[in-house]
Amino acid sequence: MKRLGVLGSTGSIGVSTLEIVAAHPDQYQVVSLSAGNNLKRLKEQIQRFRPQVVSVVCPDAARLLRDELGPDGPQVTSGVEGLIACASHEQIDMVVTAVVGSAGLVPTMAAIEAGKDIALANKETLVVAGSLVMEAVARKGVNLYPVDSEHSAIFQSLEGHQKSDVRRLILTASGGPFRDRPMADLNQVTLADALAHPNWDMGRKITIDSATMMNKGLEVIEARWLFDLPAEQIAVHIHPQSIVHSMVEYVDGAVMAQLGIPDMKTPIAYALSYPDRLALDLPALDLCALKNLSFAEPDLDKFPCLALAFQALAAGGTAPAVLNAANEIAVDAFLREQIGFLDIADTIGRVLDSHVPNALEHIDDALRADIWGRQQARLILAQKS
Ligand SMILES: NC(=O)C1=CN([C@@H]2O[C@H](COP(=O)(O)OP(=O)(O)OC[C@H]3O[C@@H](n4cnc5c(N)ncnc54)[C@H](OP(=O)(O)O)[C@@H]3O)[C@@H](O)[C@H]2O)C=CC1
Ligand SMILES: CC(=O)[C@@H](O)[C@H](O)COP(=O)(O)O
Ligand SMILES: [Mn+2]
């Protein structure tokens, strides 16, 4: 029996994780659940999974929930302290980090410091402080398994091989909803257009990241830290079908890939059950029905966010944390329909260009850069309105 903490249980990854748990009650038990503001869904999950501790963002919501659940309910916590409590409860073996954004960093670090294994969906954690997170993982001797589909594919394609034999990692990208739109049209696209991902059903923030291709930029930085390889050995290929989830090219020319239907349950389950495989009730990949699997270089002029991510990775130190912070603010403004699609990349580029990176020696350096990047992005957005 593996005992789980699920951070971000009310979101897309969180719900898929709990569906896997529900299908394998003899193998997984839920110790903690953390939500943001979706109390209705959290209450349903509490009924179903009977956790010992839960957290929500607002203290007022926590008070209401505590009153409603009564003395027989779980411990109800809130804010960052609540996330930390859900990440480090003594009975937890593994924490699934499915919170969105840099809010995932502090609880993920708390889980690592408490000796928990990590199933990492929250890519922003590695973007903001990858070197520090991976140093903590090594120091505490815990396991960190990727949930992100591309990184799970690379993890699987690396099994049984040596890092020194890798020529490059090839991350596949769908290209998002605007892959085939002329660049000149991108100033007119709507929120609804950007939320219409061609292949994946995901939360709103990552769906916009896919439309700008910042998602792939964040994933390049995530791969750099997860697999300890420099940016020069990480390539991105547009693969519209999202069937080949990513690849590893070896020095002898062999290319190892992982294929599957685009459903996050497969990589989530592998992170939960590694090195075993869980039986999942998913449709098989119908190889004979695949008429075309294509690959192409990304267009960095049309998708400047991807270039900005490479720029931040090359700058190092606090630059990726600033890139991520500016992206979170700009995407939030786009989701509120306060800015246009092209304003996202413009804002991030201007924030990044005004940043002089500092060294990342402590988690506080990353958190300070995160705050600074948010402030700068808000200033730029205020000038736009
Ligand atoms: N969805 C996918 O297929 C994939 C997602 N990922 C990554 O996984 C992470 C989660 O993505 P996804 O599930 O799509 O996102 P969702 O938006 O669907 O879910 C996010 C979860 O985090 C909670 N949350 C949001 N903000 C906060 C906060 N400040 N403090 C605490 N909790 C918060 C939400 O709570 P509530 O809803 O209750 O407000 C929700 O439970 C992201 O980092 C994403 O990049 C990676 C690969 C694929
Ligand atoms: C499912 C997953 O891992 C997402 O990160 C997905 O890859 C997004 O698709 P894009 O390739 O369009 O960014
Ligand atoms: Mn991904």
TrEMBL record:
Its EC number is 1.1.1.267. Residues 259-375 form the DXP reductoisomerase C-terminal domain. Keywords: Isomerase, Isoprene biosynthesis, Magnesium, Manganese, Metal-binding, NADP, Oxidoreductase. Its cofactor is Mg(2+); Mn(2+). InterPro entries: DXP_reductoisomerase (IPR003821), DXP_reductoisomerase_C (IPR013644), DXP_reductoisomerase_N (IPR013512), DXPR_C (IPR026877), DXPR_C_sf (IPR036169), NAD(P)-bd_dom_sf (IPR036291). Signal peptide: none annotated. One of its GO terms (biological process) is isopentenyl diphosphate biosynthetic process, methylerythritol 4-phosphate pathway involved in terpenoid biosynthetic process. The keyword NADP applies. This is 1-deoxy-D-xylulose 5-phosphate reductoisomerase. It comes from Syntrophotalea acetylenivorans. The gene is dxr.
